[in-house]
Amino acid sequence: MTQSPIPAVISIVIRGTFVLLVQRANPPDAGYWGFPGGKIEFGESIAQAAIRELHEETGIHASAGPIVTTIDAFDRGGRDIRAHHILIAVLCDWISGEPNARDDARDALWFELSELAGSELPMSHSVVDVAIQAAALTQATRRDSHLI
Asked: Which element (helix H / strand E) includes 130?
């Protein structure tokens, strides 16, 4: 049986100097903190999936912005690869709501961006790097909007 990578989204919400993270309730990253997200459903756009997954896991309402980056996420069992997800990181603009862990999330909280890099918080792969990229994109977007 031939396996293919599974397309999924992660929703990056930056509000001021804070970033939204969820603590995963289910394997493979149960107990780890990362961005809300999940599989893209058939016929659903990347933006629609990002907004849907964000709301399902946190109750937050947002609009989808630009794609920040993509990540290969491998679920390994020893030497074997059990699953391969391609995570599309979407920058989302917060509209309303406060984090409330729902669906696949055990917890959902705002974290200070400047404290993530030195944190001992158990985090999924690439969380800090993606948060830094998203923050830089947010700053660039804000600078550009002031030029108009």
From this structure: helix 127-147
